[in-house]
Each structure stands twice: as C-alpha cells, then as structure tokens.
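Thread: "does anyone have the structure for this chain?"

Original post by V.I.:
We have the sequence but no experimental structure in hand. Need at least a predicted one for the grant figures.
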Amino acid sequence: MARAFRLEIHTPFRRFHSGKAVGVTLTVSDGELGVLADRAPFCAPLETCIVTVRGEDGSVRRAAVTAGLVECSNGTLTLLAGAAEWPEEVDRARAETALARAEGRMRTGDSDAETRRSLAAAARARNRIAILGGSEKP
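Reply from O.Q.:
Generated one for you, tokens below.
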C-alpha cells in the first residue's frame, strides 16, 4: 500500500481541504506534476488547474483550483490557491456565463492589462466547467 502524506489546500476564504493523500496531481508553471510521499521539497507557482487527490482508501477526488502557490516540505503538500471548488460546489450556468463574459471582453479588450485579466477569467471558467465533465479544457 502506498504511503500517505498530509495535504492542505487553502484559499483566502477557507481551509478547503485538510487530510491525508497517497498521491496528488496538479499543474505548476513547468507542467503537470505528480506528488507522492517522501517527495523532495519544492516550491512552485500553482497554475489554474484540476487537482486530483488519491486518498488512502483508494478514493479519487478532483477539485478545480485557481492559480497560487504550492509547497512540499516536511511530509506536507500545501496549496495556497485563489479559489478551490469540488464539482458539487460548481454552478455550471454561472461558470458558462463567466466564460462568455470573459471571451467577450477579450474581443473588445482596450488594454493589455484588460486582456490578461480576461484570459485569466476565461481560464478559471473553463477549469470550473471541465471539473463537471464539460467540453471546455482548462
């Protein structure tokens, strides 16, 4: 049986998850990363992505998280994300509306800063739709 490690996922609004995991898959700036127990310490920018958590009991849960920071040290993987949601917390209609609004702003963006904000909003919305099994890719 795989060894477990501590997993903490925090947002500015709540402690999203605190518990044990035997494996976590997430996306950092360099690409997709899988984390197991006894992983060498690291710290990296967390991308907006779907985080897959494999539990000690064989369960697999997926969460939509937005960009932040991930740190692995002392047997604990900590994610500090802008937001995090389990699939049952996502409102599909709201996510689809947010995606349409962001795509509209991208087409009419007056500045580079506005375009960057619109791209980030679209990525968040696509990620939320993807966690529900929608056609959008994060």
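V.I.: this helps a lot. The domain at 5-87 is CATH 2.60.15.10 (ATP Synthase; domain 1).
O.Q.: and Strands lie at 5-10, 15-21, 23-28, 31-35, 42-46, 49-54, 60-65, 68-73, 76-81, 84-85.
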